[in-house]
Amino acid sequence: MQTQTIRIPIKAWYGDEEMELQFPETWEVHECRMAGHDAPPLSEEQLREALRHPVGTEPLREMARGKKQVVILFDDLTRPAPTWKILPYVLEELQEAGITDDQIRFIGAFANHAAMCLEDFVKKLGKDVVRRFRIYNHNPYEHLVDLGKTTRGTPVLINREVMECDLKIGIGGLIPHLGAGFGGGAKLVVPGVAGIVSADHNHRVIGSMGGDRSVEKKFRLGKIEDNEVRQDIEEAVRKVGLDLKIDLLVNNRREIVGVFAGDFIAQHRAGVEKAKQLYATQVVKDCDIVVTNAFPIENQVIKGVWPARLSLKAGGTAVVVVQSVEGQALHYLAGRFGTNYGGNMWGKPQQLLVPQAGRLLVCSSYLSRTDLDMYGPAEKVIPCSTWAEVLIHLLQDHPQQAKVAVYPYAAIQYPAAD
Question: Residue 71 contacts by C-beta under 8 Å, 6 or more apart in sequence?
């Protein structure tokens, strides 16, 4: 059989490798890349200059003068940004302001996810930072300061260590988000270092983000205007007093291609405009087969299946490639913790992650029985350890012609406006 090949990235944070997908030569195959595919990474000088010219605030070195205690918030391995690349320039600015290492601590701002270990810290921050500075995991259940409620009723309970610092800096990624429109900005603080009840009210009550899969009401990917989830978060973070936010945009290789620093609303809106251009992807409609690659957030596969929902025709075959070495990340709100129960946002799947699919193939070398449950009813979910297994099933479903769409890094792609 004559074939055509598409190469996709896999294993973010675990080697950043490539995988070959082969299709029959006679099939109509579309590789749906984002507009910023292969965008060149910023140079060291460009990274430094972006920090020296923030949006809506004075430069960090001026902001830091005379401060006593500094906290730097960072996201976890469910986010693709290589924080370690920008950190030397942040620390350089603090040093210029007379801040010593003992005045700085780092806090992992990953909300309701599992705690990070030493290896995770090194991957995200670099070995030198881990050796030089104290780094803490956020605990969403204890050691919280009560700052009242937002006008929408969200309790604002914030990490005690954060609130004891008089200079608060956040470093994170800016990528599309199903609930908040885009990540980045204030989201690193709420829910990042907020209490579990804060995240629950914002996500589940305001965002209507429960466990069912009727996504029409909840699908806010790329929507910032009139987004109550985002508005509630930003109101809460004004109470906290985040002094400087730094957001990183990445290309298909997880290299930094954009830096937006400054006031957490002003810099976020500027970054979103760039992100919409960078991540924009033309959606191919009415496909027989859609292959959606969860890279670079393979440990939260839900973030990488939206293209199949938009591209696949009724009864077609959905393929999810998810090469997550660690499996699916723990989430205390949305996770499952028993046969018929889970966090407040969990709901037992009644339909496929891609509801209109006839079957859903999961291609992974790292499958677990528990993770498979999240894709939908067992009779419609087919686990495949290799692409060769996937291809056997595809040829059974589509023995003649097939129209195929491949989204190579779906977790950061964004549907372009028609």
Answer: 104, 105, 106, 107, 161, 162, 165, 167, 168, 169
Would you give the distance in Å from CA 2 to the centre of its chain?
Answer: 37
Distance CA 57, CA 62 (A): 10
Query: Cα(390)–Cα(361) distance, rounded to whole angstroms?
Result: 7
| CB neighbour list of residue 335: distance below 8 Å, 6 or more residues apart | 342, 343, 346
Mean pLDDT of 325-344: 94
Residue 212 has pLDDT above 60, yes or no: no
My answer on whether 399 and 325 are in the same domain is: yes
> Residue 209 pLDDT > 70, yes or no?
no
Residue 147: how many CA atoms within 13 Å on its side-chain side? 22
Mean pLDDT of the region 383-398 = 97
List the one residue out of 188, 207, 198 whose CA is nearest residue 154.
198
234's tokens = 């930003």
- Give the CATH number of the domain where residue 50 resides: 3.40.50.11440
Mind giving me the DSSP string for 77-145?
TTS---HHHHHHHHHHHHHHTT--GGGEEEEE--TTBPPP-HHHHHHHH-HHHHHHSEEEE--SSSSEE
Q: What mean pLDDT, rounded, does the chain reach?
A: 95
192 vs 237: CA distance, rounded Å: 11
Say yes or no to pLDDT of 210 above 60.
no
CA distances (Å), origin 150, targets 145, 225, 235, 268 = 15, 19, 6, 20
Do residues 387 and 3 touch, judged by C-beta distance below 8 A? no
Asked whether residue 203 falls in the same domain as residue 62, the answer is yes
pLDDT digits (tens, 9 = 90+) for 229-285: 999 999 999 999 999 999 999 999 999 999 999 999 999 999 999 999 999 999 999
Amino acid identity for residue 313 in this structure: K
**Are 262 and 384 part of one and the same domain?**
no
Q: Domain range for residue 380? A: 3-32+282-415
Instruction: Evaluate if residue 213 carries a pLDDT over 70.
Output: no
Query: Which region among 28-37, 46-55, 221-230, 380-389 has the lowest average model confidence (pLDDT)?
Result: 221-230
Residue 53 within any structural domain of the chain = yes
Residues 6+ apart with CB under 8 A from 328: 299, 300, 301, 371, 374
Residues 9 and 107 in one domain: no
Domain tally for the chain?
A: 2
Judge if 23 and 53 occupy the same domain.
no
